[in-house]
Amino acid sequence: MIGLLALWHSYGGLVTGVGGVAGGWYGRIARTHALERRDRLDAGAQALRLTEMLTARERVLSDRLDTLQQHHWMLMDQVQDVYAEAIAVRLIVHDLDAIAGRPLRQFRPLPPYPFPAQDDQAASGETSISSGGEDNK
Q1: Cα angle at 130 between 91 and 72, to 5 degrees?
Q2: CA quadruple 38, 40, 44, 47: dihedral positive or negative?
Q3: What is the pTM of this model?
Q4: Exposure letters 4-41 (e unless 16+ CB within 10 A, then b)
Q5: Rounded Cα distance, 68 and 86, in Å
Q6: CA distance 79 to 84
Q7: Which stretches does the entry tag as region Disordered (predicted)?
Q8: In angstroms, rounded to a whole number, what is the distance separating the alpha carbons of residues 37 and 78?
Q9: Omega before 114 within 30 of 0, i.e. cis
Q10: Which one of 76, 82, 88, 101 has the fewest CB atoms closer than 10 angstroms to its CB?
Q11: Please, how many CA atoms are within 13 Å of residue 50, restricted to the half-sphere of its CB?
C-alpha cells in the first residue's frame, strides 16, 4: 500500500495530465459527433417543414385549379348556349326574310367553336383580337 502511494506521488501528475489530455480529446470528439448529429437532425427537420409547406401550397394551388376549371366549364356551357341562340335567331331572321320576299341577310360569321387551343393560335400567328379586327373592316 505504501508502494502504491509512493508510486502515485511519483507519477500522479503524469497520469492525471495524460488522463486530462485523453479526456479532453475524447470530449472534443464526442462534441463534434454531437454537433454533426444535431446538424443532420436539424436538416431533416427543415426538410420535413419544407415538405409540409410545399404540400400545403400544392393543395391550395390544386384546389384553386379545380375551381378555375369548374368556372371555365361553366363559362364554356354559357358560350355554347349563346352560340345556339345566335344560330336560332339567324334561322328565324332568314325565315322572316324569306316570308317577306326580301333577300337573305348576311351575318358576320361566328368565331369557331369550340375555341382552338392556345397553342394552335400561337402557331398560326392569329389572336382573338386580330381576327375580330379583320371582320370589322
Answers
A1: 70
A2: positive
A3: 0.48
A4: eeeeeeeeeeeeeeeeeeeeeeeeeeeeeeeeeeeeee
A5: 27
A6: 9
A7: 110-137
A8: 61
A9: yes
A10: 101
A11: 6
Tens digit of each residue's pLDDT (9 = 90 or more) over 17-66:
888 888 888 888 888 888 888 888 888 888 889 999 999 999 999 999 99
The three-class DSSP label of residue 16 is helix
For every residue of 19-70, DSSP letters joined together read HHHHHHHHHHHHHHHHHHHHHHHHHHHHHHHHHHHHHHHHHHHHHHHHHHHH
Burial call 47-74: b when 16+ CB within 10 Å, e when fewer: eeeeeeeeeeeeeeeeeeeeeeeeeeee
Question: d(Cα 65, Cα 126) in Å, to the nearest integer?
Answer: 27
Query: What is the pLDDT at residue 116?
Result: 78
Q: Which set of grid coordinates corresponds to residue 70? A: 369548374
